[in-house]
Amino acid sequence: MLALAVIIDLALGDPPNALHPVAWMGKVIALLERGGIKLKPRGQFIYGIVMTLFTMALFVVPAYFIILYLGKWNFFAVVIGGGLIFKSTFTVTGLRRAGYKIKDLLKEENLNKSRFELRALVSRDTSALPPPLLTSAAVESVAEGTCDSVVAPMFYFMFLGPVGAVGYRVVNTLDAMIGYHGKYEYFGKFAARFDDVLNYIPARLAALILITGAAIQGKGARAWATARSEHRRTESPNAGWTIAAVAGALDARLEKVNHYVFRESGAAPAIETIDSAVRLFLTASFIWVMLCLIVEVIIFGA
């Protein structure tokens, strides 16, 4: 399943939104949100818990029964069906393309389009960001995506199969849509905390893998030192690990205004920094996939 899912990702990338389960998750969440966002704080919090569990069940249960049904056919049906389901929970190619798209737009000095495209990758207001902060946001999204888009889905796949990866993706999508302060302070609190718990181990694994990738490029010591000393600078208990590792590896100052600055002594990020970040992401993804495949071979062989 893992090998098939990776091959599909590298060869075809992500399906169009009309066929993508994560896009379906987003539509379900947007629809259910209307029923709870106008409640009082306590009601929002309870509704948010119910909504999170319901949305998980809505996608996890069908995935479980599809794989169970395919298992009654033969081994290959399970591998193909499970591989397709699993592929919908992670993306290497999609994040690579997104990073390069922002790079190309910045190279063309198309700032308005860059700001528009970045809205799908980061939660901050991008409408007035200057080029260095747009570049920083793109690099940070690649860094965080190493965990959210690759390491974490595969981590839960290793333990719980495609169903576990689907469950993780539901919670991560909920966090991306409603896991913020302000309007969603109470409504999205449960989803945000659930996502923190699920990403606790994967985020640290992702940082170690990024540091290993940086070490291959001769930049491991700086990446390790920065990750150790600066990972607490984000409000999230997890995001700081990967961002700090990438900032150290690239010796780049990464900043979200009024929230955090990583590697203050580093150079202001340039367009080429996105290239370097994507290359590091691809190296780390390769290392992680190889590790997962080795574990799968050992388990399958046993």
Features:
302 residues, mainly alpha, two-stranded antiparallel ribbon, 11 helices, 73% helix, globular
Provide an overview of this structure.
The structure is a single chain. The protein is an all-alpha fold and 302 residues long. The chain has one domain (2-301). The chain is built from 11 helices and 2 strands, in the order H-H-H-H-H-H-H-H-H-H-E-E-H. The protein has helices at residues 2-12, 21-33, 41-71, 75-87, 93-107, 111-118, 131-178, 189-216, 220-230, 239-250, 271-301; strands spanning 254-256, 260-262. A two-stranded antiparallel ribbon has the order 1-2. Helix 5 (93-107) packs antiparallel against helix 11, helix 7 packs across helix 8 (189-216) and helix 7 (131-178) crosses helix 11. The longest helix has 48 residues, at 131-178. The protein is globular and about 60 Å long. The mean pLDDT is 95.
Question: Could you give the topology of this structure?
Answer:
Elements: H1 2-12, H2 21-33, H3 41-71, H4 75-87, H5 93-107, H6 111-118, H7 131-178, H8 189-216, H9 220-230, H10 239-250, E1 254-256, E2 260-262, H11 271-301
Antiparallel strand pairs: 1-2
